[in-house]
Each structure stands twice: as structure tokens, then as C-alpha cells.
Amino acid sequence: MSQDEIAEAQRELLNELDPSILQMLLRRANLDETRGSKDPFAVDTVPPATTEPVETDHQEPPTIPVEDTSPIPPPPENNTLKDGATTAPTKQKKKVTFDADTAAPEPSADLFAPSARLSSQIHTHDHNCTHDHSTTHFPPAPSAPDLDPSDPDFLANLHAKYFPNLPADPAKLAWMAPIPTANSPADLDSPYHPGQSSLPVSALRFDFKGRLVPPSLARQIPSSAGLHHHAEAPEAAGYTVPELARLARSAVPAQRCVAYQTLGRLLFRLGKGEWGVGEGGRDGEEDDLAFSIWRLVKGGYVIESLEEAAGVEEGAGHRGARAYAIEALWLFEKGGWKEKWMGR
């Protein structure tokens, strides 16, 4: 196209566009020129408005709304001088000051008065002195004496050393008391002492084979035999019939097994007449030894305990306890006591 044709096309476009749209496009062109020098890669986000040529004879040119998203340019600086001024007025520079730049205020006279009084009472130390401070010590608290299990006051010393703030109950600690020494006052008061003129039948002791253990022999049997325990007369070996009756109802299967086995052997010896045949008196103190032992067996419900343990169904309870209970009842039958005195 020639220059004349280009100029003619521009005039036709200018005549067809709305004057407001034309003014906005011209302003945008001026902004792009000033902004292009700062950011050469800036992209105009507003798409260019395109219009189709419309004949002016039939209808008016359409209006195309375009939003201006560019920031409003700042107002131009006024570089003009006032009338009669030869130079432009200079702006006064602002200064910022901080409290650190100024001197600290003087404290009042009575601000540190309490500290001054306290400082006069504080002892000053000379850290450069050659005094040996390793010898300086504080008196330690008195330590409790070592415990001696053979001491008669062992329980009282044990409570004073480890549990001084708890109430003392000697009855609960009686089983921990040391064994009395031979021929001591506590030893002479033992219910199974050899020096006793008489012994109740309930105090008689038996070993695991059901044999009677006399008081003199009970003190000679070593503790390794397993016959010592923390019941009455812990210095004597063996079990009494009431103790075996209680163990037969124990919740511990091993204790029940020991009681069943010992009671079965005791009942066998009772039926065989090792301690009498039971034909003597059977009223109170006139009972002979055999019938007195049988009264203890009946009073402790020994036979009922054995029958209950033996009657447990197979696999329902402790198998060992059931076997020992059956064995004890069989020994009771073999001894023959049941045939003679069971109903009496």
C-alpha cells in the first residue's frame, strides 16, 4: 500500500470509532511508551479491541466497553516556581531519634536503699585466699544402726529405721520375729518346749510321713527338711493336725498336695493303732491319744475336704491335688479306722 492509501485507511478508522474509545486507546499508547522503558517484558493483559467495519448509512457504530486495568499514573511533579522565586524550595529532611542516643536518666536516691541495707549483711568472700575449703562440712544426720535379725528388738528397730512415720502393728510382723535363743524366757514359753510338763494333743507335731515328732526331736531336725514354718513354735519342726486341716483348704495347690499326702499317711497310722486303739475313755480328758487325734480330724473336717477334692471331675481341677486326695482316702480305708470308729 502507498502512503496515501495508508493515510486514507487511518482516516476511515478514526471516523468509524467512537471518540471516547479512540481517546482511551491513545492514552493507553502513551502509557505503554513510558512504561516500556522500565519493563521491556511487560505484557498488556487487556486484549486489543477489534471491530468490524460497519456501513454508516444503515446503523450507528457499535460501542465496545473496555476496562482499564492499568494503574493510575501519579500526577506530574510541579516544577514551576512561584512568582518572584529564583530557585525551587528544598524539602526539609526528617530525622528520627531513639532513646539510646540520649543520656540515661539519673536514678532516684532511694531506689536501691533496701538492697544497700541487705548488702551490708552479706558476708564477702575473698576468692584469692589460700584457705582449704575442703575441710568445711555440715554435721550429717545420725544414721540408724545396722539391723541384727537375732536382736530381741529387731522388729522395733526395723520399724524405726525404714517406716518411722507409719503406725506399728507388731501382730502383723510376728512371723518375722527371730527364733528365741535356747532356754531364753521366750523359748521357755514355747508351746512345744521339751521342758513342758504336759502338752495338748492339738500341739503334737507330725512329719511328712505321718510320724509323731516329739518336742526334743523337733528342735534337732534341720530347717533343710522343710518342716519349719511361721506358725506356732517356729523353732520346732513338724505340722499339727489343725495346721494340716487349714492347709487342706488352701488356695495354693502345692500346699493342698502336701496336706493331703501327710493327712493320708497320718490316718493310715491312726488306723493301724500306733497311738492306741481308741478303746479307752472317749469323754474329754479321759480320751486316749488315738481318739483325741481322731477328734481333731473330725473338728477340722479333714475327711470332708478329702472327699470334696477327690470328687472333682477329671480335668476340672488340679490333677495333682485330686490324686493325693484319692490316695489319702485309700490309706484311710486301708488303715481300718473307719470300720471301727467312723460312726462314733
TrEMBL record:
Biased composition (Low complexity): 42-53
Residue span of region Disordered: 33-106, 128-151
All residue ranges annotated as the RPAP1 C-terminal domain in the record: 204-270
BP-aspect Gene Ontology terms: transcription by RNA polymerase II
Pfam families: RPAP1_C, RPAP1_N
Domain RPAP1 N-terminal: 1-33
Record-linked InterPro entries: RPAP1/Rba50 (IPR039913), RPAP1_C (IPR013929), RPAP1_N (IPR013930)
Family membership: Belongs to the RPAP1 family.
Protein name: Transcription factor Rba50
Biological source species: Coniochaeta ligniaria NRRL 30616
